[in-house]
Amino acid sequence: MGILVKSSKIYNMNFLQSIPAPVFEIIGIFAGLTACFVVALQVWKEYKSKLPSSLSMGFVFGWVFIYGFWGLYGLRFETMALWLTNGIALTLQIGLSIVVVKKRKRQTK
Description:
Layout lengths: L1 H17 L2 H28 L8 H20 L3 H29 L1
Helix pairs in contact: 2-4, 3-4
């Protein structure tokens, strides 16, 4: 069993290494843009809704930190799929943060 698992891991690594870096980068960009689209939908939904936000401040600002970190990580290691898509997601998340904060201020008045 151990040999089977080990050879499977080696095969998987060989398979991943066989994919050219530019192709992997393009796939990463499309995957990241898909995630950005989901964040954009959340921003739009939150902006259009008249109801109080159900998103916690920890959740909203936690994602600001996460997207910021991974964007910087992508810049540091020159990985376009990371810095581009996380930069976009960071911008969207900051927009979401503004909407949520404004809703909370309106709610406490």
